Amino acid sequence: MRTGRARHYLAGVFRVPALVEVRHGDLLSEGTYDVIINSANETLEGPLFPYFPIGAECESGVFYQEDVVDGRLHIAGGPELSRLCRRLPELPPNDDPDAPFPSAYTQRCEIGKARLTEVPEKSDLAGTCRYLAHAVAPMWAGDLDQEEQQRRLKLLTQAYSSAFKVARGSGRSICSPLLGAGAKQFPIDLAARCAVEAVLTEANRSTWEKLVFVDARQECVDRLLEEFQKAE
């Protein structure tokens, strides 16, 4: 494993068996990839309103559009990215009152699934990647019993697996944030464990040559390093 001290640096390189890198830095400026995995919501239209921890004050821990991966990718992709997302098939209305997005919002991707779009050629994203795999992780909030915790962990792992699946044939390099560990409120250690589990499952069947996890938070980088070191 190689390490560095700069703010943006390569923290680790692993073979599990495919090449996996863990980097500390900005996902949108760390490199050029064929596919970037986006931490999306069910609408695939970017954040519709600020995220904040359930039960918190409105000004406590708020994540605005420019603070989350989904928002930043949609800002860089511009209106054309929104149009590409809206061309994806709509899901039947969700009448579950506990659903994150009720039936008033058009949904295009289920929790635990992913959808692929091209990147608009004339957008600011064009020099960063060619495709986006929009993966929808569940929320981790409230007082969850053991059964519900396991269900949501499984959905998070499935979101990665679905993203890897839809990305097959779209290139040789994939970049991903640590899904679930930001606005979705997953404990970072559990989010990292799900990420590595999905990578290990996919590694033997995937066509990608390099997978890069990029996160600006040191704790996320450290937890990913620990989990990949266990897997080597």
From TrEMBL:
Residues 7-232 form the Macro domain. PROSITE patterns: MACRO. Gene3D superfamilies: Leucine Aminopeptidase, subunit E, domain 1. It comes from the Eukaryota. InterPro entries: Macro_dom, Macro_dom-like. Pfam families: Macro. This is Macro domain-containing protein. It comes from Effrenium voratum.
